[in-house]
Amino acid sequence: MELLKKLYQIYSPSGKERAMTKFIWDYVKRIPGVKLETDKIGNLYITKGDAESYPCIAAHLDQVQRLHSKDFTAIETEEIIFGYSSRNKRQEGLGADDKNGIWIALKCLKKYDTLKLAFFVSEEVGCIGSGKAVMDFFNDCRFVIQPDRRGYQDIVTEIGWTSLCSPGFLKASGYKQFGYRETHGMMTDVQELKERGLQVSCTNLSCGYYEPHTDHEFTIKKDLMNCLSLVEHIIENCTDTYPHQAEIPGRRRGIYDEFDEATDEIFALLDHGELWSAEDLYYMYHSVFPQLDMEDYQRIYTEYYNLNTIEYGEQKL
What we know:
Blueprint: H1 2-9, H2 18-28, E1 34-38, E2 44-48, E3 54-60, E4 73-76, E5 80-85, E6 90-92, H3 96-111, E7 115-120, H4 128-131, E8 141-149, E9 154-159, E10 162-163, H5 167-173, E11 181-185, H6 189-195, E12 202-206, E13 209-210, E14 218-220, H7 221-237, H8 258-270, H9 278-285, H10 294-308, E15 311-312, E16 315-316
Helix pairs in contact: 1-3, 3-7, 8-10, 9-10
């Protein structure tokens, strides 16, 4: 976990990813057979080996958290990793969203002879990096995997009514043997790539972080390792190219709209018993649900406590 903890130590808020970029650049250039490129906006493109087609992993370089003290330390226990400042006596977020994805990508880069990686800036403020990515980089990719999902069991096959991958890719990935399940996801870079015309299958995977965008964020190590194992399995077994033309229709019935997605996400957060205000929720999630305003967060906040506070005389259940 030493590489992972080094990544957690680096503070990389949106628009200020330079320290993370430099770390990755210095780390990667020591690996033989690797070519590094960048673009005008600051995205990193890495190619290892010479092949007709490549597996590809994507991750984003930025994080949301405001707190990151000079004495920030990533504390590792037997089961979890969390961030802490001794001087300020408080827990601080790791930025595991998406440093866990960066870690998986770098681990695979050392292990495999042929691989492509794409690291995007400013995902958390609207997928700005992937929105301006050099799309030709992906022309010889077999598929694109982005480990950038909280929890431990989600393989995202659709985001915002944009389909991401083919049935053939899903079958070949073998995700079920790793305890994963298909689900719909939220805005992230692979969605942006598909909407810009990416012609191969891609997906977003749960990679072991919890309570993202908060100062209580933590990583469960076994869940992160399970994600790494799934990514390695896909690289080793999905040796064909998996074409996929994204379906980008209008809104479809049966799919949550952005308000419903936000409600599910925020209800799950509030169920942990932490005391958050509507303003806190807006700060944490406005980049994920950009169409929602403060009034929407107040509605979700009020609805949660109305549902969970039932009064019988002086007793509350």
